[in-house]
Amino acid sequence: MANEPPFFEKYKAIFQRSADEKEKSIIVDAIEELELPLIDLGHLNLGPLERQECIEKMARAATEWGFFQIVNHGIPEELLTRLKQEQIKVFQLPFEKKSEDKFLNLSVQGYRWGNPLATSLRNLSCSEVLHISLNDISKMDEYNKLRPFFLARSTIEEYAEKANVLAQTLAEHLAESLGIKASYFRENCSPTSSSLRLNRYPPCPYSSMMFGIIPHTDTDFLTIVSQDQVGGLQLNRDGRWVSVKPNPETLVVNIGDFYQALSNGTYKSITHRVIANQECERYSAAYFYCPTYETVIESCSKPSLYRKFSFKEYREQIQKDLKATGDKVGLSRFLL
């Protein structure tokens, strides 16, 4: 189809090499499918006891799982539906339009697919993403005036605003158990320092040999994910892969590297991946709650597991490691 990225043409040598070497499945099946801890944020407004129980449940999930799911989160279902519609609309565009320079007038990241650094099917992701820095949203209007396609800026902006409020609220409640001052996130995370990533995972005939997204951890403080019913998200829990039972009625929240470092290892940034589906396409949208580039991350307790580092320094180290090894490496680079 004209809208599909040319995975097999672009990575023909990798697929051919895999066939020649009779490469077998690289996906170790998850042992079981689990439901993430469910947090009802409505309990935060019921009374002091219910509020405290809700915060403790959230902190326990962040400590033991690194992931949880939430209901009564304040983001209307109607808005999530509109966001999904915008997502479908953008990914159904012809590939040549999606892949043009400065698509939607976004900055360096913008539209991406596959993995230009891939050397084998093991590090090739069968997915396409549109990464939107919130600082770039205003640039969309200039792009859309010159082209018939129009990605509704109003929907993206409305969702980003509500997701930012939700992320800040969650981060502040999780901070209570650590003794971190309530204003920490308001002081270090601006409304435009975060980003939104729209994901599409096309049907993949090589689903036993490549990932939808390769195993990784998120860099940010928190990620908020809206996903459909298809499933595919898996976590590495206690050294084994487990599948997350999809629930499109909830939002999924996971701890990122920065919160693990800030919490001095109390909260866990868990390695996760998405398994490609042979028959069905899958959609998800991830909001990454990030600090400004100048923000210095420092463990909240002593002795510190990690040395101090800035977002900028962390990002630069990731790029170096990706070029050198093909792997993010991440927090282990900053252990004391």
Overview of this structure, please?
The protein is α+β, with helices and mostly antiparallel strands and 336 residues long. The chain has a single domain (7-304), classed as Sandwich (Jelly Rolls), CATH 2.60.120. It is 31% helix and 21% strand. The chain is built from ten helices and 15 strands. The chain has helices at residues 7-10, 12-20, 48-64, 77-91, 95-98, 140-145, 153-176, 184-188, 257-262, 311-325; strands at 33-34, 38-40, 67-71, 110-113, 128-133, 195-201, 211-216, 222-227, 233-237, 240-244, 251-255, 272-275, 282-289, 296-297, 309-310. The strands form three sheets. An eight-stranded mixed β-sheet has the order 2-3-11-8-13-6-5-4. A five-stranded mixed β-sheet has the order 1-10-9-12-7, with no helix packed on it. Strands 14-15 form a two-stranded antiparallel ribbon. Helix 4 packs across helix 7. The longest helix is centred in the middle third of the chain and has 24 residues, at 153-176. The radius of gyration is 20 Å and the shape is globular. The model has no long low-confidence stretch (mean pLDDT 88).
